[in-house]
Specification:
Number of domains of chain B: 2
CATH topology of the largest domain in chain B: Rossmann fold
Strand content of chain A: 15-25%
Order of helices and strands of chain A: EHEHEHEHHEHEHEEEEHEEHEHEHH
Radius of gyration of chain B: 21 Å
Bound molecules: thiamine diphosphate
Structural class of chain A: alpha/beta
Number of domains of chain A: 2
Oligomer: heterodimer
CATH superfamily of the largest domain in chain B: Thiamin diphosphate (ThDP)-binding fold, Pyr/PP domains
Mean pLDDT of chain A: 98
CATH class of the largest domain in chain A: Alpha Beta
CATH topology of the largest domain in chain A: Rossmann fold
Helix content of chain B: 40-55%
Helix content of chain A: 25-40%
Distance between the termini of chain B: 28 Å
CATH architecture of the largest domain in chain A: 3-Layer(aba) Sandwich
Shape of chain A: globular
Strand order of the largest sheet of chain A: 3-2-4-5-7-6-12
Mean pLDDT of chain B: 95
Number of helices of chain A: 12
Largest sheet of chain B: 6 strands, parallel
Structural class of chain B: alpha/beta
Largest sheet of chain A: 7 strands, mixed
Order of helices and strands of chain B: HHEHHEHEHEEEHHEHEHHHH
Low-confidence stretches of chain B: none
Number of strands of chain A: 14
Low-confidence stretches of chain A: none
């Protein structure tokens, strides 16, 4: 096992996939000789040649549309959108096309492909280098949405996504790219999609989170533990399709739930978790579900640290549901 | 390089061979000083970023003539829909370095209230320099719509929209060009072909012979100009502006130039730009070229550059110090301007944020380093 950053784990996952399967192709803006603006694709063009890892013109619509065509015709495209904030020119291709090909062709045409893209705040990127758009995509039947929070999961989930028969949007928490390190197995392995990860055991409050919010939740849970409130932290890691049974089980265990995400609150992912709990297990609940989220505003720049949920806000919510 | 020869006015020697530029000494001096001001702003921001005082900047070295030449062809009543590398256009029309520095620091005096990344300026005076967006190409059809509004009111305003070579691959470029062609809208599309879109060279961006040729398909003239030749840019953009003003419709101008720095302060161009290319363009510096012209016209002598550049550096340095001392925006600016009237749910969220800050202290700011 090597100790890698999340970014290195993504890079390792891409290399592993390309070595194991010659039909895997990697492309996007600046992913070739430059190795991507974050260096996630560093060394790929060198190892696999410029037919298999290459730069495209500046068009997300073109990138995803072409990926769909490749997928329809036997390749395994793994394309990169430089920032999730720039995915919207490709929204049509993702939502109207990739996600619907299987259904609309009665299973004749399918899109086994992965769209990787860094998302989330914490780098002073302002409105357009910080957003968390997962909710738009989790509202799209036919698409899978995956978000890792550790190097181990980044590689394992990426390999599972590349092997998956359906289109996967793979959202990488850029705030964690270099700030988390962990052991990553060498070679091929996978972390199955639609499975949860228990980050920390606890019996008093359940915290659901994903991506860059996981370390924040852990920090808050440590502070809560010091006050005698042990939290069960669950990393959702595949947002769609979600392991709903697992979520309900984890919620039932404590009867008190906090959901955390960076994205705005209204119609955010936390609303789904909250509704799921209200519909199915309301009788087990000791407190209303609390959501800790970004505000319902565009993403600010100078004051981004107020916008992003931090341990302070999460702890406050934990104490609130615990004391309810 | 492509087969189409760019139009130029100032030869490498500085001679203009009978071209009539039609500019007064005062206008020429203003263009020159603005180019030095752009460079001073650029040099200062680079230092501020390297020393961790600001998070990010966009280098403009090498492209000053494109921006200043194009801006000089506009009236103050015209509009600019800029990209993030165009602040020379704002400076030319009188935006103050201090106002720009407030944006670089994202402080309480910033016209965008510290909400945007550095270099994403927004000014509505002394010229309309429309709020810059990061997504490439989105502003291009917006310029066309604004032009349509002016047409409906029978105003003679001209709309200049500027973008890079990479921008021509965006959806916005194609819809904007198409709409402008159909509407005969008073728009000048300025493509600053600076060789690269981050690391992607022109040859990988398009298979056409440069970018100006794309105009043909949209039913408008396309002109290639030497972007390091201020007078040539001024002439070509000036002709396009006048045509637009008289109801003659849009033009696509491709200015060939070279980005001498990285894409941004987070970029390392030595990873992908061949050294020889940088050396080739270093010899074609737009400011030195303009100086040779000014010298031949009797308007410039040795020592002028240092004196003026120092003056610009003083002004920009003072602006940076003042911006640095200005407070951050207030917490409430996170919640205002989302809508004209603040909806109840936002009021509640804002209140909760204030309450939490009062109970648990402020959130802690990160280091503000932008990794791209
Ligand atoms: C839609 C979109 N995709 C990707 C990006 C990331 N990005 C920022 S600048 C840039 C290159 C732009 O190149 P060009 O248009 O030639 O302008 P230049 O920077 O050279 O002035 C890219 C890919 C973006 N801002 N918007």
């Amino acid at each position: 096992m090597a100790t890698l950053t999340l970014l290195q784990a993504v890079n390792d996952g891409l290399k592993t996939a390309m070595r194991r399967d010659p039909s895997v192709y990697v492309f996007g803006e600046d992913v070739g000789p430059k190795g991507g603006v974050f260096l996630a694709t560093e060394g790929l063009t060198k190892e696999f040649g410029k037919n298999r890892c290459f730069d495209t013109p500046l068009s997300e619509d073109g990138i995803v549309g072409a990926a769909i065509g490749m997928a329809l015709n036997g390749l395994k495209p793994v394309c990169e959108i430089q920032f999730q904030d720039f995915i919207f020119p490709a929204f049509d291709q993702i939502v109207s096309e990739a996600a619907k090909f299987r259904y609309r062709s009665g299973g004749q045409y399918t899109c086994p492909m992965v769209i990787r893209t860094p998302y989330g705040g914490g780098i002073r990127g302002g409105l357009y280098h910080s957003q968390s758009g997962e909710a738009y995509f989790c509202h799209t039947p036919g698409l899978k949405v995956v978000i890792p929070s550790t190097p181990h999961d980044a590689k394992g989930l990426l390999l599972a996504s590349i092997a998956d028969p359906d289109p996967v949007l793979f959202l990488e928490p850029k705030a964690l790219y270099r700030s988390v390190k962990g052991e990553v197995p060498e070679g091929d392995y996978s972390v199955p999609l639609s499975t949860l990860r228990t980050v920390r055991e606890g019996e008093r409050v359940t915290v659901f989170c994903y991506g860059a919010m996981v370390p924040q939740a852990v920090k808050a849970a440590e502070q809560a533990a010091a006050k005698g409130i042990e939290c069960l932290i669950v990393d959702l890691r595949t947002l769609y399709p979600l392991d709903e049974e697992g979520v309900l089980e984890a919620a039932k265990r404590t009867g008190r739930v906090v959901v955390v995400h960076e994205a705005p609150r209204f119609c955010g992912y936390g609303a789904e978790i909250s509704a799921m709990i209200a519909e199915n297990i309301i009788e087990y609940m000791e407190a209303p579900v609390a959501r800790v989220t970004g505000f319902d505003t565009p993403f600010p720049n100078t004051l981004e640290h107020h916008y992003m949920p931090d341990d302070r806000r999460i702890l406050d919510a934990i104490e609130h549901v615990h004391g309810f | 390089m492509t087969a189409t020869q760019p139009i130029s006015v100032i030869e490498e020697s500085g001679a203009i061979n009978g071209h009539a530029h039609g500019l007064s000494k005062q206008e020429l001096s203003h263009c020159y000083r603005t180019m030095l001001l752009v460079r001073a702003f650029d040099d200062t921001c680079l230092k501020l970023q390297r020393s961790g005082r600001i998070g990010f900047s966009i280098p403009n070295k090498g492209v000053e003539a494109c921006q200043v030449g194009a801006a000089s062809a506009l009236r103050k009543s015209d509009w600019i829909f800029p990209s993030y590398r165009d602040f020379g256009m704002a400076l030319y029309h009188g935006v103050k370095p201090l106002d720009m520095m407030h944006n670089m620091y994202g402080n309480a005096q910033d016209s965008a209230k510290g909400r945007q990344m550095p270099v994403h300026f927004s000014f509505d005076a002394p010229i309309h320099f429309v709020s810059i967006s990061s997504p490439i190409g989105t502003h291009i059809p917006q310029a066309v719509g604004a032009a349509y509004a002016a047409m409906m009111r029978k105003e003679d305003t001209v709309f200049l929209t500027s973008f890079g070579d990479g921008g021509t691959s965006s959806l916005g470029f194609h819809s904007g060009m198409n709409f402008a062609g159909v509407w005969k809208a008073p728009v000048v599309f300025l493509c600053q072909n600076n060789g690269y879109a981050i690391s992607c060279p022109t040859e990988e961006q398009t298979a056409s012979d440069g970018y100006a040729i794309k105009a043909k398909a949209y039913g408008m003239p396309g002109v290639v100009v030497d972007g390091n030749d201020l007078l040539a840019v001024r002439k070509v953009v000036g002709e396009a502006v006048e045509r637009a003003r008289k109801g003659g419709g849009p033009t696509l101008v491709e200015a060939r130039t070279f980005r001498m720095g990285g894409h941004s302060t987070s970029d390392d161009p030595t990873r992908y730009v061949p050294k020889e290319l940088v050396e080739y363009w270093a010899k074609r510096d737009p400011i030195e070229r303009f100086e040779r012209f000014l010298a031949q016209a009797g308007y410039w002598k040795k020592g002028d550059r240092d004196r003026l550049y120092d003056e610009c550096m003083q002004e920009v340095g003072a602006a940076a110090r003042a911006a640095e001392e200005t407070a951050r925006p207030a917490l409430e600016t996170v919640f205002t301007d989302v809508y004209a009237d603040m909806p109840a749910h936002l009021r509640r969220q804002g209140q909760a944020a204030f309450d939490l800050a009062a109970r648990k202290g402020d959130a802690s700011a990160g280091d503000g380093k932008f990794p791209l």
